[in-house]
Design brief:
By secondary structure, this protein is an alpha/beta fold. The protein contains 23 helices and 17 strands. Helix content is 48%, strand content 15%. It is globular, with a radius of gyration of 26 Å.
């Protein structure tokens, strides 16, 4: 029977395909007495060999698509599979206790996991996660149960999951994955951002998709309207195929704007930039006509690995991005760890409220060795392009001055060592905290630029966790309170002859763009896949008219009123 599930439109487009459920398999088993230990151990080794084969395939895929650092995760898993002490203990339990391999495996690995989890060393605690992962894979092969992995997809499918982790999304093969849909998440969740960078349609936050469908069900993911159609009629599929074709034609028309400047209908030039997470993303930036990189999220260099990246590793990554952008500006955000982003090898205390705790610049000012290493790598790379350095989560002028002082110290140290550094590096801050927006007129005297991070600015202004579906209604980019804060930042920058950009998801939102043009935003940074659509929209906007629209919006009472106003005035 055909049904429709409502969710949140996370990435535009229409995807049609069979459902591929990425869910936890049932790995329950019974402890069974065995009579032939040799036969049972042979069964164990068959499962071990199959698990090794899986991991080698996944590792090779990760190496080819994501680089050595991501592939190293699976090398660690292969080492666990080849550990003679671990395997020997499992075999010993099979022989001594005359039990099936499933029982011996679980008993042995549970002991190892318990030991590692009780260690003070964070790196060793992470090894517990490796053992759990490997144990699950061996157990699945013993039970004849398939563990679904996005990297193993070899036909056109729609991925269906509770949520997609960074490692899940990193393994998605765009050749076969037509789109995805999840139970949880919002427009600013990691999986949504990844979908936009991969340019595949996605609907998140459906709440029940994993329990509402079966593997092989025909799905239509409508990334424009935030709907998932389950087993639609042939007539409905025909309609969606037509929508899909129209959308692709529209994208082809937008592609003609690739090499054009971003100019409003009354001749005002604006800059359209892209948000990236690694040097691999530059290809999409250039393909979509990006004029700059407005946000390089450097934390991805530090995540999903066992130790901090060295100064030289960081230098190579930053140098690659600057070179590939061929003189276009690149805004690099210094390490933004904390909140929902953790580094397992950094032994940081647990916090009751990590989003309001030691994160981003606060962490870097505490862990200065880590901060100085990153700044040196950036400064060394600065001669290969147009570098702009941006500090995240600045709440006070003192924090900015402290961070800038460390940066200038490292610059002088490099110069004293005979290492060249660009003398044309702009230093700015992200505006994510209401106090920073309110004080923008003063901060603008000290910084070279502002970039407004609306994902967190909205979260902190509305006191609502943006990852919590129950308060997702408070994620209101069009709320007059948010618009007033954005205006404060832009006006504060312009009063001092500085520029103001935006790198939150709001910058690529077609309802927000007319307002932002009217408020005088200079730079819009978004997912690369959104750039051409935004350029097409902006060329039809008159900034003088949008200024009047923005002034009306600032006097509204609710986000809903603002949305209605924009739709009415711009025919969206």
């Amino acid at each position: 029977m055909s049904t429709i599930l409502k969710g949140i439109a996370a990435s535009s487009g229409i995807a049609i395909g069979k459902a591929f459920r990425l869910v936890e398999p049932d790995l329950s088993f019974e402890k069974i007495a065995i009579s032939d230990a040799d036969e049972e151990i042979n069964r164990l080794h068959s499962a071990l060999d199959a698990a090794k084969s899986d991991l080698k395939t996944i590792r090779d895929h990760a190496m080819a698509n994501l680089g050595e650092d991501k592939a190293a995760i699976f090398d660690a898993h292969l080492l666990v599979l080849s550990d003679p002490e671990l395997i020997g203990e499992i075999e010993g339990k099979v022989r001594t206790n005359k039990v099936n391999s499933e029982s011996a495996l679980k008993e042995t690995t549970d002991q190892y996991v318990s030991i590692f989890e009780q260690m003070d060393n964070e790196y060793m605690k992470e090894r517990a996660a490796d053992i759990k992962d490997v144990s699950k894979r061996i157990l699945a092969h013993l039970l004849g149960v398939q563990i679904q992995s996005p990297s193993m997809v070899a036909e056109e499918v729609i991925i269906v999951a509770e949520d997609l982790t960074p490692s899940d999304t990193a393994q998605l093969n765009k050749q076969f994955v037509r789109g995805f849909t999840t139970n949880i998440g919002g427009r600013t969740s990691h999986s949504a951002i990844m979908a936009r960078s991969l340019e595949i349609p996605a609907v998140v936050g459906t709440k029940t998709i994993t329990s509402s469908i079966q593997d092989g069900d025909l799905l239509v993911v409508d990334g424009m309207n935030g709907e998932v159609h389950v087993n639609p009629t042939s007539e409905a599929v025909q309609k969606f195929e037509e929508m899909q074709k129209n959308y692709e034609q529209q994208k082809a028309e937008w592609a003609l704007l690739k090499n054009e400047a971003t100019v409003t209908s009354d001749g005002v030039h604006l800059e359209l930039a892209a948000n990236i997470g690694s040097p691999n993303d530059i290809e999409a930036v250039l393909k979509n006509g990006g004029e700059a990189v407005g946000l390089y999220r450097t934390e991805f260099l530090f995540m999903e690995r066992d130790q901090l990246p060295s100064e030289d590793e960081q230098f190579e990554a930053y140098k690659t991005v600057l070179e590939k952008m061929e003189g276009r500006s690149v805004v690099v955000r210094t390490l933004d760890i904390g909140g929902d982003k953790k580094l397992p090898y950094l032994q940081l205390p647990d916090e009751l409220n990590p989003f309001l705790g030691i994160r981003a610049i606060r962490l870097c000012l505490e862990e200065q060795d880590l901060f100085r290493t990153q700044l040196r790598a950036l400064l060394r790379a600065s001669i290969y392009g147009k570098l702009r350095i941006m500090f995240p989560m600045i709440a006070t002028l003192d924090e900015f001055q402290s961070a800038k002082k460390i940066l200038l110290e490292e610059k002088q140290n490099l110069l004293n060592s005979g290492i060249k550094v660009s003398d044309d590096i702009e230093i700015g801050i992200m505006v994510e905290i209401p106090s920073t927006a309110v004080l923008a007129d003063q901060l603008a005297k000290e910084v070279d630029f502002f970039s407004i991070g609306t994902n967190d600015l909205i979260q902190y202004t509305m006191a609502a966790d943006r990852m919590n579906e129950r308060v997702s209604y408070l994620y209101q980019p069009y709320n007059p309170a948010i618009l007033r804060l954005v205006k404060m930042v832009i006006d504060g920058a312009h009063a001092q002859g500085k520029w103001a950009g935006m790198c939150g998801e709001m910058a690529g939102d077609e309802l927000a763009i007319p307002l932002l043009v009217g408020l005088g935003l200079d730079e819009f940074s978004m997912s690369a896949s959104s750039i051409l659509k935004a350029r097409n929209q902006i060329k039809h906007l008159d900034q003088k008219e949008m200024k009047v629209l923005a002034e009306k919006a600032l006097s509204m009472q609710t986000a809903g009123q603002v949305v209605e106003l924009v739709k009415k005035e711009t025919e969206l």
